[in-house]
Amino acid sequence: MIIAVDGPAASGKGTLAAGLARHYGLPYLDTGLLYRAVGLAAAHAEGTQGFEAAAIAAAKGLDAGHLSDLEALTSAGAGVLASKVAVLGPVR
After folding, report:
1. What is the average per-residue pLDDT within 13-20?
2. 3-state SS, residue 52
3. Taking the complete model, does pTM exceed 0.85, yes or no?
């Protein structure tokens, strides 16, 4: 079973999704953290023509280690970068 929860920022999606996962005994994947991790990995190329390519490469190379620094992942800067990479088709 897969349950997807979508909605605007700060609307409680993560809390709801985590609760549903616990209730049904399902794994929980926070895709927002994935976009934030990709954004942080591609940050070195932000504002350049190579940003999209850096984001695609970061998405392809993403592993669990990229999700370990929750402080960095939940920073405002990571949120801005997540918005920039989430619109890229190959990253999605």
Report:
1. 92
2. helix
3. no
